[in-house]
Amino acid sequence: MRRQNFLTIFVLLVFTACLGLSAPAQSSLPTASAADRAEAREIFKQLIEINTTDTPQGNVTTATEAMRKRFLDAGFAPEDVHLLGPDPRKMNLVVRYRSAGQPDEKPVLFLCHVDVVQALRSDWHTDPFQFIEKNGYYYGRGTQDMKDSDAALVATFLRLHREGYKPKRDLILALTADEEGGKFNGPKWLLENHRDLVDAAFVINPDAGGIELDHGRAVVADVEATEKVYADYQVTATNPGGHSSRPRPDNAIYELMAALNKLAAYSFPFEMNPVTRTYFENLAKVETGQTAADIRAILATPPDMAAAARLSTEPSFYSNFRTTCVATRLSGGHANNALPQTAQANVNCRIFPGHSPEEIRQQLFKLFDDPKLTVKYVSDAGVVSDVAPDRKAIVPPPPIKAVFDPLTRITQQIWPGVPVTPVMENGATDSIYFAQAGIPSYGYSAIALERDDDRAHGQDERLPVDSYWKSLDFFYAFTKALGGE
Length: 485
Hints:
By secondary structure, the protein is α/β, with parallel strands linked by helices. It folds into two domains: 31-208 and 429-483, Zn peptidases (Aminopeptidase), CATH 3.40.630.10; 229-268 and 323-392, 2-Layer Sandwich (Alpha-Beta Plaits). 36% of the residues lie in helices and 21% in strands. It is built from 15 helices and 20 strands. It has helices at residues 2-19, 34-48, 60-73, 147-163, 186-193, 195-198, 252-265, 274-284, 289-298, 305-311, 315-320, 357-368, 401-414, 431-436, 465-483, and strands spanning 81-84, 92-97, 108-113, 132-134, 137-139, 171-176, 202-205, 210-214, 217-227, 229-238, 242-243, 324-332, 338-339, 342-351, 373-378, 384-385, 420-425, 441-443, 448-450, 462-464. A hairpin with a 5-residue loop joins strand 15 (373-378) and strand 16 (384-385). The longest helix is centred in the C-terminal third of the chain and has 19 residues, at 465-483.
């Protein structure tokens, strides 16, 4: 543990040197033509309107097959366009853009999941699987997570091919299944069964990172350096039940509600690590007023807990400071006229690096303080077990100059003066599979969003139209830079 902490600190010092300071403003990038934008918008629309949820109505293969057709129609060689997977509804697409000659370096992999979280029409003001543009936004499930980047990279590969671009190394685009849950995680399956198709020098994963906006002002550009550990827990209360005309205070639903009320009132302890500290040190340079003062206060030794509490009213800051657990699903009872014999909740946790799912399971059991409750771990495939794994967060990979020089330069061209800084992803991504396989992975989407308008997985998910066009320009320039111009 001491060695891992030292490595993490060393890596973050290098990250800070590479990323923490704003580069001089650069001349603006050329923007995509009207025809290029029209194609990119059509691809985005097509992907949004294909239901790729892990439900009977969803089908990832419909989306990946549609993109496969676009690449083949554009003239990509069939042997470079692979549609494959362990389930007919969960096929992954892997596209290789060949170098001009024998490459001296391993490929670059762009990793993009195409599955999305379920969305109910009754919960939205628009149809979540209809692509709608209004008031300067694109609406639809996946507009933020992450069909925007899927579409931008598909459009970029097609545009580069159309222009006759010849990279010096191979470029790979993987559109994959089941990042949001399900039994057939695409990156894991590809690494285990077809590593040759996705083996790379490094991975760019647009499922993390991006530009934080504060009332339209670009505050900071986040690059994922590490991420939390994802874990689900099944919390169950049982009771003999009985006739509903004879209510008892110990029925299963009441017992479960009492436990969940304790969870809602509880905050896991405040924590910082080298990644989050570096993020807030850089953020303190561009924030103003009370926010800047509070950030400096939490960076002190010891940290000011009153300042931490004020900052924690902003959800993204709150999640940066601690493990978070929240009830996401409920079920209970078996008849309208009977006391419930079983009540059950799913509790979803995003675990701060350094803690394992089993450690958090034990903490939840202690918090609930009710021996009649069970707290079991639920795997990504839905398997329920009495004990959770001892899975650790990834150690940040060292920054690669060939990645971060163009990333910083192009970011500065689009958003002059914005600092680029490493961050901890508060969710979880497929980067973990490549990190575990020894392939450095960096999370950056080039998507600009207001801090208080994060609607991924939520109601009325939307993306500013301007953010999509800027990400399209970014990925075109960045892909060319990584491939060698």
